[in-house]
Write a structure and sequence with these properties.
The protein is of the alpha/beta class. 60% of the residues lie in helices and 12% in strands. The chain has 17 helices and 9 strands. Helix 5 links the parallel strand 5 (76-79) and strand 6 (106-109). The longest helix has 19 residues, at 83-101.
Length: 330
Amino acid sequence: MATIYYDQDADLALLKNKAVAIIGYGNQGRAHALNLKDSGIEVIVGARNNGNAFRNAVADGFAVMSVKAASVKASVLAIMLPDEVVTEVFKNEIDPALQESKEAKTFVFAHGFTVTNKTAKFPASADIVLVAPTGPGRQVRSLYIEGRGLPALVAVEQDVSGNAHSMALAYAKAIGCTRAGAIKTTFREETITDLFCEQAVLCGGMPELIKASFNTLVARGYQPELAYISCLKEVKLIADLLFTQGMDGMRHAISNTAKYGSVIAGPSIIDAAAVQKLEQLLNNIEEGRFASDFMAEAKAGSPVTRKYSSQEANSQLARTGKELKESLHF
């Protein structure tokens, strides 16, 4: 059974006399900053002068300064930047600030990619912790406002002060996550499971299955509109059942026809060959090949990703979806 921490296990006082710098004011960064502020924590934002993040943070009422200045001033640095950006920002902004400050810092990450794959070298004098909410920033914020919270994963990679674990829990409490529960893990486990599930199911496998199923129906002469609704729009119905009731509950809720069809078809599609591909996918992530390829792709301007996205945006599936949205108003 996983170790789970709640509000009573976390001491918010650990953050009360410390400034937290949010480096990266995007999806997660903005939500963390607002929740921290509402929890009574001093928050500053590090952002490029007059960029979108800078303007948004100013509009939200935060003190905003350069990443370097924020890194000098704050005791806790929450790195909320995209994975591919951290290396350069750390080298050019954060590391010089650490040399100037001389104060031991606590680094907080919302995803373990940078630390696990060592794409930036952090000082031996710093505490390095993970507080990874299990959903998007908008949900971190909306649930906090409602008096609830989004579960998070917490981990410690480097504990110089002897207080890193407690600091991670304090941060998790300040953004509302210990209201729901914070699950103990490691940076490596969070990184690998997150990347694997993104690629195998959520953002890779499921969309490709939808596209292949849509194209199979259309190629046989079935209306694209019906294929779109059946293969894509109805995914939410099953996803909601899986989320609320689990696998068994989902099967209990569907028709006997759907139940039997799923039992026959599912294992024939996800067969031994598919499992072998999943194992290879996991190997690539565990052994660092994916991280290396991703960083090279980002450095080159993401040509593979951009080409694929362009093709997908101009596909019949995408066109059908746009037309249905206009005509059916959903």
